[in-house]
Amino acid sequence: MNTIDNPIDNSDRLKAAALTGDIDLLYTVIQDDPSILEHIDLITFVETPLHTAASMGHLRFATEVMNLKPSFAWKLDLQGFSPIHLALQNNQKPMVYRFVDINKDLVRVKGREGLTPLHFASQNGEVDLLVCFLLLCPESIEYLTVRQETALHIAVKNEQFEALQVLVGWLKENCKRGAENLENNILNQRDEDGNTILHISALSSELQALQLLVSTGINLKEKNLENKTALDITSTPEMKSILLSVGAKHSIEVADAPTRAHRLRLMATTKTMSNKLVSEITRTRSDMTEEQRNIWLIVATLIATAMYQSVLSPPGGVYQISAGDNNLNITSSNSTISTPKNVGRSVLSGYLFSQFSICNLFSFLSSAITIIIMASSSTQSGIFVYTLMSSFLPCYLICMLQISPTDVNTVIFGTPLLLFLFGLSVCMMRSLWVRGRW
Fold this sequence. Notes:
It is built from 22 helices and two strands. By secondary structure, the protein is mainly α. It has two domains: about 5-255, Ankyrin repeat-containing domain (Serine Threonine Protein Phosphatase 5, Tetratricopeptide repeat); about 275-435, no CATH class. A two-stranded antiparallel ribbon has the order 1-2.
């Protein structure tokens, strides 16, 4: 009898081949029914020969099936597991390595309850697999289960301290763009009950895990859905002592952070020039491409550099001291030297220097504001750039004061402009905080 007319028999033989890892039998079945693998692929949830081989650890058979039908690696069986999930469950580590070696994107596959291979490795404490998965797919650390849990939640819940160390170490070692925000988001991710990993750790008896977490940038004052901090729910006096030693607070001592809705309501009711200015600046910056922002940043930096250099070497230069200066007096008793009052001052007249200082200050401060706006796109970089520019501006003003032929020029023109920049910056930061950007 032609076996192609007996699909049930072919399916049984194919399953037998997968159970025993018999590649010859696999091809015998394919010869009898060339479309058998295609028919299996049409079923949404099905146990494929790859699932069976992955569970049994038949490495060569699984590799052969993956070469014939790569899509099988992504399929979920009736229990919601892919082949790589089954390999992990059955401790078939060589099979897992073979899967991700053939297709590194399998690290992304989500199974039952949103569990990825990284979640499984974290649950089982497989630190070598954790490192492998993170190297192949760094963004997998951001994936959440249906309970809104990260791999760190799972490591803490299952008391896998070494796995937690690897995951925290990965976050700290990451130097890619946005790494600091990523670390903060992952460490403070809340599950479906609003618990961060600090809450979960406080409920356990693992002192090492808690000590590790409090040494990171984790939020010690985060509240869960029951409005409790980690200190409120700590399980032992030792855990409580650790939390208190790093400044953790009870919920009654922690003010609720303003919500996004509160900030939006505040924006709607607060009509200030700073809010309007920040809105226009933010929209203008958002409309620019990365290339355009870089061009503006380069131009502003060049202008600021040129203006600062013109203060160090003003037009016409500065008065120099000479040995023949009639005003030069040396007093031998205390070895002090009295120099002419105009030494180091600009040779320009007071009127011309006033015009020069106004134009120079306007150009320099405009460039400084442009640099702050174009270079600051996040909380950390914004504060960093603003701090550098704030430190640089007094140096500029001191140089301007030093070369001014009269002190009045700088006091009249420099101070108001500096106060304007400071006030503008404060208003911008306040408005950005209200908007939830800083």
